[in-house]
Amino acid sequence: MPDTQLDMDHLSGALRRETVKKNVAAIHISGKLTLLQRKLSNVLLLNAYDSLTTAQTHTIDARTLAMMVGYNSNDFDTLRASLRALAETVAEWDMLDEKGRQEWGVSSLLSFAKLKGGICEYAYSPALAQKLYDPKIYALINVHIQRNFSSGHGLALYENCYRFVRTGSTGWWALEVFRKLMGVDGSDYYTSFKHLNAKIIKPAVAEVNKSSDILIEPEFRKKGRSVTDIRFLIKANPQKAMFEIDDSDGVRNLAVYKTLRKQGVSDRLARQWISEHGEDYVQQKLDYVAGQGDVKSTLGYLSAALRDDYKAPAAETVKPPSPEALAAAKQREEEKAREDQAYAARVAERAERARKLAIVEDLVSRRNPTQRDADKRLFMSTLSDELDRENFRQHGWRSGLNANAIFAFWEELEPDAFQTETPA
């Protein structure tokens, strides 16, 4: 949608946070939801979280809701059907309360939802709202990561594994529990482990490892020849580590990327082509395809032009470029100069962050164990945001989310620690 950026600029503070605290008990209740419904449930919770226990109802612009979930903003029939499914889905939890007593409860995922005047209004039951808001046990679900998933089973497995990333394993689940988490407990077909493994486990594991910030590996426990239990070993995906600087935003700012997107090329394919061929080569093929007039499939023709290096035949007489063409070429040169300058700045920033990180690691290595524990507690006390604190618990001094705060902390402890040269 061409106006997506405009919508993003008007998102509320809760939606800008990009993560949602999702209660562990609540993660287990939505196994039967489709991919779209699961994403919709997460976005609604993210939007409502700050006032989850203080407001009776919550609202969100319907077009913004559609944009964040990832479907046509005018497809209100699909939105209505998905909201109806959330209201008809039963949530069930079985957990210990603050006094250690067992608590069982049941509720619909949404107590009501309505669309009126382009606004979606909805509510949770008070009991479920308390469970969703409980800060003691939650997983941080990244709403941007969920957009990468193309199956509900993959996203369900990610949600149920992510909260165990710090412990490295989900622990053993009986297969009937796992089937319930995946929403296939009512299917006779999936009582067969062969079918469950081929159609659910293997595809879902592959999607989690490809699309998210964790890597998982299933292990099975048998009784005789039958598989009875499953668990997943979990570790951070090094290619999507929080501290690494993803240059995707830089590519997305290139003029050639924006032209590709206007031609209907997907985000992933556009970045892949630019990475493989370089922006100048891709721009040449865009210009070539534009000069061919109407074609049946612009995307297919462009793909072939890139693959086979299509070139326009040499003209016998070369016409001087028009004033418009000269102006367009000059504009492209100026844009490329700005892009090169911005890219150089990002490279320099990356190098500087890496240099400071190495210094922090060296400073930490010099401290004794008691000092290290004290340093961590002291730094943690300076963090007020729970997301920042959770990220530091997971990544320690390599926490990319807290990089600037980490550097400031160590510079205060060790003045001149990050100077590039020794003062005279």
Automatic annotation (TrEMBL):
Q: Which InterPro entries match?
A: Initiator_Rep_WH1, WH-like_DNA-bd_sf, WH_DNA-bd_sf
Note the superkingdom of the native organism: Bacteria
Q: Name one Pfam family in it.
A: Rep3_N
Biological processes per GO annotation? DNA replication initiation
* Location of the Initiator Rep protein WH1 domain: 19-161
Q: Name one GO molecular function term.
A: DNA-directed DNA polymerase activity
Which region ranges are annotated with the description Disordered? 313-337
Family label: Belongs to the initiator RepB protein family.
Q: What is this protein called?
A: Initiator Replication protein
